[in-house]
Amino acid sequence: MKYWPHTVHFIANYVCICLRSEIQYLVTISFMSGVSDDVDDEFWNDSNVSSFCFDDFPSDTAKIIEEIGAELNKLDLNSTDDEELGLFGGDHLTSSFNDEMSSVSNSQTPSDLRSISSETTEQRTTPLSVQTTQPDSDDYKRLQAECSRLRSKWTELQCRLKQEKYFAPDFEETIGRLATGEIYIFQYYRRLSDKKQLLKTAIDFGDGDAICCVVLFLERTLSPVVFRQLLLEFPPAVSHYIFYLKQLSMNDKLSELLLSLGLVEQLAAVEVSRICSEKNAESKIALLRKALAGGVFADPSLNEERMFLNSYADLLEHQLPIDAADNSARVEGGLKNENSVVDSSVLETLMYCCRLHYELPSNSLASPLSIRNKFGLTEQQFDWIAIKALAERQQWAEIQKLLLRKGLFGKQKLKLPISCEQLLNVLYTNGATASDITIYIDLFSDNQRKLMLAKKYKCHALVIKILIGLKDRLELLKYMATLSPSSVELSTAETALTNSAIFIFGFFFSRMAFADNNQLLSALGLSGEKIKETLRNETLTASLSNMADQVKRLCSFQVMQMLTCVVVRVCSYAFTSAALQFLLSHAASDFDKAEFEQACGIGVKVTEEQIEDTVASVIKANEEKLQLMRYKFPISSLIAEVRKVLPWADGSKLKKEIDMQMLILLGPKTLDDMQSGKKIPSKVVPKEKLKAKETAKNEESEFEGAATIEELMKTKAHFHKPGENYKTEGYVVTPKTMDLLKRHLEITGGKVVTRFPPEPNGILHIGHAKAINIDFGYAKVLYRKNEFYFFAHGGICYLRYDDTNPEKEEERYFTAIREMVEWLGYTPYKVTHSSDYFDQLYEYALELIRRGHAYVCHQKAEEVKGINPTPSPWRDRPIDESLKLFEDMKNGMFDEGAATLRMKITLEEGKVDPVAYRIKYVPHHRTGNKWCIYPTYDYTHCLCDSIENITHSLCTKEFQSRRSSYYWLCNALDLYCPVQWEFARLNVHYAVISKRKIIKLVQENIIRDWDDPRLFTLTALKRRGFPPQAINNFVAKMGLTTALTAVDPMMLEACVRDVLNVTAPRHMAVLNPLKVRFANPVELPKMVEVPDFPNTLSDKSPGKHHVQFDSTIFIEADDFKEHADDKHFKRFTSTQAVGLKYVGLVMILQEIKKNHLGEFMELIVKVEKLTEQNKPKCFIHWVAKPISCEVRLYERLFHHRNPEDSNEVPGGFLTDVNKDSLHVINDAYIDESLRRCAKVESRFQFERVGFFVVDPDSTDTKLVFNRTVSLKEDVRKT
Fold first, then answer.
1. Domain boundaries, the chain
2. Which of 959-963, 1056-1060, 1115-1119, 1223-1227 shows the lowest per-residue confidence on average (mean pLDDT)?
3. How do residues 1117-1169 score in pLDDT, each as one tens digit?
4. What is residue 1067's three-state secondary structure?
5. 1126: Cβ–Cβ under 8 A, 6 or more apart, which residues?
6. What angle do CA 732, 733, 739 make, to 5 degrees?
7. Which of 246, 995, 1008, 1121 is catalytic?
8. In the CATH scheme, what is the code of domain 709-983?
9. For this structure, is 995 an active site residue?
């Protein structure tokens, strides 16, 4: 009887452990998810498989397992005594399991109850053998019945698991399940031969993950010796195992493996990686020297690696003293800031030393020559780096001296360390002048190459010189159109045009019949010797002759007549420009020769006396400025003034007359006149102020904008007049153009018609604000053309949703877009959708096919992407066939991607035959399931503009490449064609505006939503308190330039301050309150009158509001210092009184109360009435009887200017997030008067603190304020 309780406990524990152990064996899912390291050499540890989870089974199987668990839990498992358990024998696993154990000797003893079986091996007849003296007791019988019932349930579970294939009975199925991510099990592969076969199967299968999993299984179930032998038999397994160890940075284990396998080179690579990961340079040198002294690098096969490490150590030892010396020099202010030279490459080190220490002698450690000599750099490497460094320092003379001193120009003057074009590019990108660049371009002998380079690098004088030498009048005229009207180069070109030897080839080709090629070349202006040389080149001669024949054939009689007029009578740039302007203005009317000659100044003779008198009057008008600035006065402005009076005067004569009269007035040039640079100011201005003025001037000149949108449109919007589309550059005129324009003007009444066409797939951002202002603003205000103003107050602007992509469009975006347009102050003439015109667009597509301009194509999307894709084999299919297939597309006869409608045109960007229609089986939010084909942007945009009679299609610069398809499609269908004008996109630094990236920020809980005030969406800016007028003014300052515009948020914040400073009511608030109590009783007012600021009604006296006052007030903690070390601190201290604004009281400190941490808790002060005698240096704000509120202070969301740039932020934009971009103050104090007028989105100025807005999170019990901007620009942001 004494053994009976132990027997019950043992049986219960036995059943529980045995059954649960087997369950774990059968349902082990992932070996890598966590297996104990305490295992046999050949077998799994059967008690700690942590990957077991009932969630992996179907619900009915899981139910059986849960039932078994519930039954097991009913048994008494509170006691297990190992000594008592040792009395009982029995094999806890099947006998086959133990038979298979003998295949490999065990080096470890199992830790679970299976070890009991080894002690009484003679009792192996039944899975459960129990010795007891009372087999007939009721408890024993009850326990037997329970065990039988559980065993039957366990058998049922085993059968179900086998049916559901939660383990694989063969090698191929196991590896297949592993590779496809299904449940797999390794428990049944116990013999060494099975494990080899399993590994071989994984390798044959070719799946890296499967190979890695099997290798890890073998590592944990085989002895190290057997495991390494097995790896040597299967080389692919070795490479995968090494890769696995590298990925987990298990360097010690990796080194041990590589050493045991004899892979010396890979072991050396691991050692180098470990050394290079050390960040401290001195420690890294020590590790390098230690590694070179012995170890793996002693192997003779690693000579190259040893040399590399030795050079690396030498370089670090060379860099450290240079860096230390330069840091000391920077602290003393004698050296500009540079990145540390430590741990940079040899060439980077050379570049660093060339930039900072080029002049040092060769025996100096930091000398570039010392670097070159020590590390064996080639002359070509040294010279190239030196040129780049000197170019960055803009030392052009030193570059020329370097090249000449070394004779690098050579006999042919082209023996350079780099190509001459590379040299030119380096000089140009670093700001070299045209004269500096011209020196090197002149080294080329090929005129065409010289001309190409001179144009590329804007060497205008050289271009003019080359074209004059080539006698190419047409090219010269074209190039003159790109020059400034008052430039010296233009005057030189105009003079050259009067030379009769410069021909327009087409004119002579069309008028003359050449008897032979000799006469042809003579007409081209070639000399006798040049003619003979050219005739020897038969290919060139044939090309010239062919060109002459084409010109004769293509030039009509009327063209020949006009060429005569242009060549003979229009002999300057001014004449040519006026002629072209006249022809464009009279394109719709008959040509009047007399009117043309009058407009172009043909026949007008400007005498030398007229030039002399006009120049004299202009110089007299500018005499005062000329005397002050002398020869530094811009001559171009004088030429421009004379041109206003004498537009047809000869340029060269005009320039000579100005030079002569300036010489008479000012005398010869002095040394100071010949020096470049600005005049030194007479007054000494502090460096800080001078720098600030210079920065402001640079910013002002950088952005060619205006103060307001109205002013911008009046002064900068040089767009065409409605109906004069043909005057714009690149506009295509067809025989039907003028009739279409006439009908268009009848419909619009000559009004400006624009549109804002957003895609409703996201929230509008600051970039859209520019488009909104330009689209709506241009239609709203007047504009200028040729100094005349045309009123467009009756102009209209559509809000058209480009809803052609139903997959991405949501109703909330439609609503939000319209709200933001109206918030910015604009009301659409009409709200339309591209889907409104789906029927008409479909009919246009049919007509496009009928005219042979479109076809149905079956190429896949990936086949038509990119530049110059594979030509479509269906491009020339019959029109009737394309019409039938297009109808089949409309009727849903094709799968998505199986067919598209493509247009026969190549865009400027190289895109061939863009898609017009594609198949999408997605319901549309407005048309429902009516359509399964949807038009693309390339097809829809221009046609919708034409349908709505848009006069000015205003869009951002990236759509410039679509302009040709825009014009082509309208003209291909003989529709009215609007004019597309482009402007630059507006980008803001320290921001992301991508929809995908903003969603990622929300998902990562970095921001709250699209309207988080740290973003630059319009909803976010609204919530932050930015006034719409400020955003509009900011856009106006950016101008209408097509140059890439990326600005600092400070510019936007400055516009916000300008608006809020005159619109936001001022109130007192304390963000970091410090309690102040008056010690002496004085007569205090209960209420204080405070003037209302700003006073928007200038014709009336300012209003007033009342704030409460008391003997206990709160001030900003920053306004008090116990001991002010800073002499500029003018506020409250223990020795310095301070005044209270609006009260007429002065506070004098008497006592400071602090807490146990030394923090100020309360100030006891004495107050006096303000007099002339006690007037303090400073007055501070305060609050009395305040109410608590929450204040949110926002900073930049990102640290770097371009968080999306992988060069600036290699880790991605999420790693650049500023974690301190939001600071919440829960208990700021405001005056009671503020609560009465604070409504959501109301903006206020907290005196001496900043501008704030009431957030929508505010409640009746507590207000929440967002800081819009500080009162002054935070210089730390720069």
1. 154-301, 419-506, 709-983
2. 959-963
3. 999 998 877 778 889 998 889 999 999 899 999 999 988 888 899 999 999 98
4. strand
5. none
6. 135
7. 995
8. 3.40.50.620
9. yes
